[in-house]
Write a structure and sequence with these properties.
The chain has about 325 residues and is an alpha/beta fold. The protein has 10 helices and 13 strands.
């Protein structure tokens, strides 16, 4: 059984032909050209689908698509997705069907990263887990009995907007101190830059003081690996904040396995070990049993595999 997975971003459209057992058969990526409007983007998605099908003479069961934003319970409509200018409330599934002839189901991209992990990644070992995606923002998905938990309207799993400090920094949340304000890539880089400016004797200052815009979490990882105490401390503080958020997730959902993915997660043990230590410290004792934080190695492929997996679930 074969399906097509689409990962729609503001910059690129990633597409793949996926076998339900073997995984990727073919992948491709084309620019989104989001600034040219939604009709143009729908045409671009259709082009990617057409090229994959024709190149492999394939007969997919349909299209699964991940995209930013809040998706309706019937998995057809998205509301106000970020980074896609001019999109408001769009029936994406119908637009793709009109252009390709293939049935289409859509889902929030972070939810699909969780589903991809459940079928092809580290999450395959668990019936239930919480995926936390640490990228430009902080997202996530909740897997219960191998299925995405979607809430009453399809919009559950906005893990980045869990508030851990009402007086904390701003992010994309409607109030201060959401976990995204500490671990979203640009917010973590902002905090790191402010801290490094206060330590001009540190090698990180020497490297970035002329252009802190180039500072990324992976640079903090390399500094930590080299024994830079300031880099280690910045990542430790971020990891502790993640640990506080995870305490909330576990106490509410009674799910003990946390799978972490995304660019910021490349900070590895310097971020995840403090997160695990903090969570174990503040979780109520019964919730510590079988608690574990796991680093997902699929990276950005998780959402693409999850999109294809959604098609297998919904369209076969």
């Amino acid at each position: 059984m074969i399906s097509i997975g689409i990962d729609l971003g503001g910059t690129n459209i990633k597409a793949a032909l996926v076998d339900h057992k073997k995984g990727f058969l073919q992948t491709t990526s084309i620019p989104t050209h989001a600034d040219l409007g939604k009709e143009h983007v729908f045409d671009r998605i259709a082009l990617a689908v057409k090229d994959l099908v024709e190149e492999h003479n394939a007969d997919p069961i349909g299209v699964g698509m991940g995209l930013p934003g809040m998706v309706s319970l019937d998995r057809k409509t998205v509301k106000n997705p970020p980074n896609l200018p001019g999109w408001k409330v769009e029936n994406v599934a119908d637009e793709i069907f009109k252009r390709t002839g293939y049935k289409c189901v859509i889902e929030n991209d972070a939810n699909l990263a969780a589903l991809g992990s459940a079928h092809f990644g580290k999450g395959k070992a668990f019936n239930s887990f919480i995926m936390v995606t640490l990228g430009t923002g902080v997202g996530g998905g909740i897997i219960i009995d191998k299925k995405i938990y979607r809430g009453t309207t399809g919009m559950a799993g906005e893990l980045g907007h869990v508030i851990i400090n009402y007086h904390g920094p701003l992010s994309n949340s409607n109030t201060r101190g959401g976990i995204e304000a500490y671990l979203g890539q640009r917010f973590l880089s902002r905090f790191a830059a402010d801290t490094i400016r206060q330590n001009p004797e540190n090698s990180l200052y020497s490297k970035f003081h002329k252009n802190f815009d180039k500072l990324e979490p992976v640079d903090l990882y390399h500094a930590a690996e080299d024994g830079n105490e300031l880099g280690i401390d910045i990542l430790r503080q971020a990891g502790e904040k993640l640990g506080y958020a995870i305490v909330n997730y576990v106490h509410i959902l009674d799910i003990r396995k946390i799978v972490v993915s995304g660019g910021v997660a490349k900070a590895g043990r310097w971020l995840l070990q403090p997160a695990e230590e903090t969570a174990l410290k503040y979780l109520m004792p019964p919730f510590r049993e079988e608690f574990e934080i796991i680093d997902e190695s699929l990276g950005n492929d998780a959402a693409l595999l999850g999109a294809a997996s959604l098609a297998f679930e919904e369209l076969r």
